[in-house]
Amino acid sequence: MSQILEHWERSFNKLCDLLLNSLTADEHLSVELSGEQSHFMRLNNAKIRQSGTVIDGEVSLRLSHDRRTAIASLSFTGDLEVDSILALDALQDLRKELPQLPVDPYLVLPQNYGSSREIYAGQLLAPDKAPQAILPMVQDVDFTGIYAAGIIIRANGNSAGQRHWFATETFCLDYSMIAPSEKAVKATLAGQSWIPMQFQSQIEESKSQLQILDCPVKTIAPGRYRTYLAPAAIAEITTMFSWGAVSESSIRQGGSALAKLREGKTLSPLFTLRENFSRGTVPRFNTLGEVAPEEVPLIIKGELANTLVNARTAKEYGVTSNAANSSESLRAPEISKGTLTTREILKQLDTGLYLSNLHYLNWSDRPSGRITGMTRYACFWVEGGEIVAPIKDLRFDDSLYSFLGKNLEAVTDFQTFVADVDTYGGRALGGCQVPGMLIRDFTFTL
Amino acid sequence: MEFDLHHALNNLTLDAEWVGLRQVSEKSSTRYVRDGNPEANHKSRTQGVMVEVLANGQFGYAATNRLDPAGIQAAAEQAQHQAIAAAPWAVHSFTTDVRPKAIGQYTSSLQQPLDAISVSELVGLLTQVCETLKVSDKVVQTTAMAQTVETEQRFVSSNGSDVHQHFFFVETDYAATAQDGSVTQKRTDNGQLARCYQAGVEVFDPVSVLARARQIGEQSIELLDSEECPTTTTTLVLAPDQMMLQIHESIGHPLELDRILGDERNYAGSSFVKLSDFGTLVYGSPLMNVTFDPTVPGEFAGYAFDDGGMQAQREYLIKEGLLLRGLGSLESQTRSKVPGVANFRATSWNRPPIDRMANLNLEPGTSTLDDLLRDIEYGVYMESNRSWSIDDYRNKFQFGCEYAKLIENGQLTKTLRNPNYRGVTNQFWGSLVKVGDRSTQAMYGTPYCGKGEPNQAIKVGHASPMCVFSNIEVFGGAA
Asked: SS3 letters for chain A?
């Protein structure tokens, strides 16, 4: 990793220098880099469907001048000769474009918030060794998913003198182990070093969980049920907070499901949500180079404490930025633990539904906080504290003001880190740290 | 020096059964105005090459943005290593039959080139759209977004393929959010980013754009004081801008052969459709005719060849309600022995192709708008998608719309807000009782059809007439 990284870092810094040195006195520039060198291996039924590598980088130039701003993005190859020609062309193009744009009243100019350099080296499988390392162990099961591994880079430099460099080497094996009933054990093994014993142990655990799915599926009628949502299901719900919820601008502009919290409504005192960057899985700097506090409390014991505010929103509404990203979405969410022990989960659930995962969530009525979605993978009917049978998939439709409000009965005394396995455009960083939750009267409609 | 793909292919030193190079160069611009102020002005250029190599019956790939001989050679060697390492574990042993020799060209049909409007003119129009959307102080947010994309794609291979396709796309989105006390309603231009076409800047005709903006603004206000959609089981009439979503989620995805073959089970999901259902499954009522058609001029996902080199042509997937053909590329057709289509598509140079929708259309029937409504004593008409969710087998869905009207005695009467409906795919399409004629048809698209591992968001187009469904569960928002 070190040679490639050193080369890219050197090349990015030289490109930044070149661009910044070419600015006139009244021009302001931020240079952002997002890059990766990845190996992807797609698996179906313990066989390989597709396998390959991707080397990709994109550099974005944000030029501001005369109260106007515009962005140009272009490929970053690491070859300074190639990149500098493209980048200088793009900068020239931006100069021609700016006078054609109206004045931006909420323009945020780059500042120097301090520089940083973080590098997390890992021990990954060589791409051509990955099949042999993974597949022999799963030949007796229907094993489907993706192995993704390699270097991810985020960097930033600006005309105020600030530089950030974040590089991490990670892998993620995101898989479903599927029973003949078509129900599945869904799991993720992610980290910075591939440890064969850890892989073996997790696969064995998944195989043992698979056995319980291999019995007849029970159909549950729509209605309201006591429901346990395991951490992976809570992780799905957590993603909804990034989509028209905790963003300050969305609250101000009529697009947030949490507007009622601003008006004084509360969720359960058992519910606490914060941004917590202390795990170091994502960079704390945003695309403007602002550095977020290590912790941003958002909802504390059911009450709205803060929203996510970026510098642009801060300027528009006269509030303080907490260095949120451009979409004011969660980057390092954590939901606090409670007191429900693993041993007590089924006992306290008593009779109801145990849901390992939820799928395809959407707002069914955003201002009311109503979310619909499906159960998926390993979901069970429980009676008298005992698992009875896997269930036929159910659709839920319920308001977060209910299921995270008066109907939130307990929160587990443990949290699980659910890695973000998103690879749209590029491999995502980070994930969320969440517990499981026991809900009264969770509403199922279909 | 200009990068020459043929030269790059011919200069490769590689002992392989087959090599293909797919170069994608894309220029895009995004102009976004909120409440009359510039929110984002972004231009983007990306270019790179996807190298595919066939070795021992397995394709390996390597994508690079290093467009020089050393970069392409290194990528080809990596792709070959991937193929060789994966071959003992391959899901299927492929031959060059799934990469036929393809020669041809394609250019999007457009009336005016993308550079026929200046940056200041376009941003000026979007600013005017915001002003027009704000029909009242109760409109608390107005947005206007326009995206133009020019994509040039070349595909050459060791068995003589030489395809050049040149695409021009325009995507627009105009929206007004209105608020009165605790009621908030958002209205858009036929659904979020639904107006996606292969087109030029003729799309920005100010008369048409501003007339639509005015109606969007007015309807956002109209919704504030309207009644909630009733909770009942009734006749449902769907406008083409909601039919788009209905077709996409409950016909398109379940018919993708790679889902049925299990490739997507860890991500997007599987399908209730089995391989044995092709030729036998009654998917819906006899009024249902669905085509895969990348040849429709102006529709968002048109092309002449897919990314494996298969020539695109119009095919019936469902005819008179009977399922005939899957959305499966040559690779999936070989694996499944089910007839498919030319739909092996990748988002860009940095992703391998997989089975995707392209243009997937419900063919018009014979009913005029009056015919569709005349016999409905009581029902609900819905427009413009705002919420979508369906299970991983594509059975149980729940969709929400922006705007609805009550239908009473064959007439559209009161406006309704927060309309939703739910159903199960096969039953729902069996309830299709009337299909509008060409006069009720409209064409839309989306750039955000998500699928695949690694993930890919791709462009799809859908055209549909207005349709009537009987006995559908409809309901409104939360109390």
From this structure: CHHHHHHHHHHHHHHHHHHHHCCCCCCEEEEEEEEEEEEEEEEECCEEEEEEEEEEEEEEEEEEECCEEEEEEEECCCCHHHHHHHHHHHHHHHHHHHHHCCCCCCCCCCCCCCCEEEEECCECCCHHHHHHHHHHHHCCCEEEEEEEEEEEEEEEEECCCCEEEEEEEEEEEEEEEECCCCCEEEEEEEECECCHHHHHHHHHHHHHHHHHHCCCCECCCCEEEEEEECHHHHHHHHHHCCCCCCEHHHHHCCCCCCHHHHCCCCCCCCCCEEEEHHHCCCCCECCCCCECCCEEEEEECCEECCCECCHHHHHHHCCCCCCCCCCCCCCCEEECCCCECHHHHHHHHCCEEEEEEEEEEEEEEHHHCEEEEEEEEEEEEEECCEEEEEECCCEEEEEHHHHHHHCEEEEECCCEEEECCCCCCCCCCCEEEECCEEEEEEEECC
